[in-house]
């Protein structure tokens, strides 16, 4: 019972669900077909994305749009396709998790 109370307090203090839930969403939305957390696959490693955009206040909004609409040219010639299966709320959740990686 004590551990449940502690977990509730931690979630309440952070104001969100723990970031650990997001790798599941990344798998569910097929992001991990082209990305990995620590190494380049087709697209950049998520840790590299987090490092590149660290401290940029507009990064979450820009990256959420890129998740949904796709893009090219930032990480070389590979094209990131649009992901219409990802809602705006899901894109924001994914980007929040990615930017939290170190």
Descriptive account of the structure:
This protein is mainly alpha-helical. The chain has one domain (20-100): Cytochrome c-like domain (Cytochrome Bc1 Complex, Chain D, domain 2, Orthogonal Bundle). The protein has helices at residues 2-14, 22-28, 46-53, 59-69, 88-100, and strands spanning 71-72, 79-80. The chain has a two-stranded antiparallel ribbon with strand order 1-2. A hairpin with a 6-residue loop joins β1 (71-72) and β2 (79-80). α4 (59-69) crosses α5 (88-100). The protein starts with a helix and ends with a helix. Mean pLDDT is 85; it is low at 1-20.
What structural keywords apply?
51% helix, 102 residues, mainly alpha, Cytochrome Bc1 Complex, Chain D, domain 2
* N-to-C series of helices and strands: HHHHEEH
Q: Which architecture per CATH?
A: Orthogonal Bundle
At the fourth level of CATH, the homologous superfamily is Cytochrome c-like domain
Number of strands: 2
